[in-house]
Design brief:
OB fold (Dihydrolipoamide Acetyltransferase, E2P); about 260 residues; mainly beta; 5-stranded mixed β-barrel; 2 domains; elongated
């Protein structure tokens, strides 16, 4: 056999042998949320769940969108960085109650398990499923008045309005760190955070003071596994409001820094 014929045969053989392997898609098994959470860091996972909340990034930040998804085995934070989000042809279905199929990379951030979506087409609404009605799903300017005690990981991303007593207030210990407030009512307490751009716009009569009542609107979030309320506008902080209802601080809490408001 001539050398040219041999090379042609070898090349043709390589093409026939190698090309089908390139065309095959990797076979990845469906995992429950629990299985995806327990997967090794860096492993590609394919799972399905229902959205319980969506947390948008803070304005003018590089933070990702956080989509909290759950099934009967658990819940996980799914992150979508802004450049991926902007390339997605449709994001309107990404809201509480929607069932999702997702394909991402398992990992951790500060000890909290998460799944990162790395391509715009790796997240879709599960075929044949409908979005469930969510009575707490907020419109753009609607904030639900709730007691602090009802907030948990399933309410992350919700817009809420809280009323309580300021029991702690800390200015930022470092540059670009947030102001921190502990707000307490009869049902519990929560950390409130906002940055200097918000603090600079709060009128003197509305600035938080320890021992004083405060009404505040914001978005429920979490930091290192701890719930907090993020405030993005000075207009969301109100120290002059009319409170009607149960005491802000329960009578059974003698260690509270504030008096009971009736």
């Amino acid at each position: 056999m001539r050398l040219s014929h041999l090379l042609t045969a070898l090349t043709f053989g390589l093409v026939l042998t190698f090309t089908p392997a390139l065309a095959q898609k990797p076979q990845i098994e469906w995992l429950t949320i629990e299985g995806a959470v327990n997967a090794p860091d860096g492993q590609v996972v394919y799972t399905r769940g229902r959205i319980i909340s969506v947390m948008e990034p803070r304005p003018d930040s590089a933070q990702p969108y956080s989509v909290y998804v759950a099934d009967s085995t658990g819940q996980v934070r799914v992150i979508i960085f802004q450049n991926i989000w902007e390339e997605m042809p449709d994001t309107t279905f990404i809201r509480p109650g929607t069932s999702l199929d997702l394909y991402g990379v398992a990992g951790q951030y500060r000890g909290i398990e998460q799944i990162e979506i790395q391509k715009p087409n790796h997240l879709r609404q599960s075929p044949g499923t409908a979005t469930l009605h969510d009575p707490m799903a907020s419109t753009e300017n609607q904030y639900f008045r709730v007691d602090i005690g009802v907030l948990n990981m399933t309410t992350i991303g919700r817009k809420v309005r809280l009323q309580g007593i300021v029991t702690e207030y800390q200015t930022p210990p470092r540059e670009r760190w947030p102001h921190s407030i502990i707000l307490e009512d009869h049902s519990g307490s929560i950390q409130i955070v906002y940055w200097d751009d918000v603090a600079d716009g709060i009128a003197p009569e509305h600035r938080p003071q320890v021992g004083q009542p405060l009404e505040i609107r914001g978005i429920v979030g979490e930091y290192r596994g701890v719930l907090q309320l993020r405030v993005d506008s000075s207009e969301q902080v109100n120290r002059q409001f009319e409170y009607k209802g149960r005491p802000l601080i329960a009578e059974s809490n003698p260690d509270s820094a504030a008096a009971i408001i009736r």
